[in-house]
Amino acid sequence: MDSADSSAFGPSELGNKQYWEKVYERDNINFKENGDIGEIWFGESSAKKIVNWICSRVKDYSVPILDLGCGNGHILLSLASNGYTNLTGTDYAPNAIELAREICTKQNFDIDYHIFDLLSDEDENIFNGQLFDIVIDKGTYDAISLNAGVIEMRKSGVDPYVRKVRKFCKDGAYFIITSCNWTKDELIDKFKE
């Protein structure tokens, strides 16, 4: 599939905020009742690969790291347990951020979480001007790609996600993305500029 061909994707409930609010509402209840942090999207193996990759290459534990669409915060918790200290997570689902904060508190880590919608929120001051050395996306671009509004924008050559992500990256930043909707070549083509 050509990465410019947005017609290859149809809208899905996975592209809707309401879907994710329900998922994390359920996960919040499960965490409170059973201590279960919820789903590790793309599996534990994928999360470990990301964390191991960062740990093997980035020895400055204070570099700013951003997880876009952090969900329950699993990746950031893993990085914190490996000594990284300047960690920020965003998600557009308030229930996800509530869950991530509760898990973080229970595990005694200091991670900064924000409710933030990449598609509609203004981003000028969300991080007080801070740019990031590492930006992580584990499935967020996939979900956004299934949003009906984004599909329409992409037909006109506009990809709001790519434009926003660039604003958060320092020059030379690492952008780590996990996707099941896009091939490696398609992702490189989308984010190469």
Automatic annotation (TrEMBL):
InterPro entries: Efm4/METTL10, Methyltranfer_dom, SAM-dependent_MTases_sf. GO terms for biological process: methylation. Residues 63-192 form the Methyltransferase domain. One of its GO terms (cellular component) is cytoplasm. Keywords: Cytoplasm, Methyltransferase, S-adenosyl-L-methionine, Transferase. GO terms for molecular function: protein-lysine N-methyltransferase activity. It comes from the Eukaryota. Pfam families: Methyltransf_31 (PF13847). This is 2172_t:CDS:1. It comes from Paraglomus brasilianum.
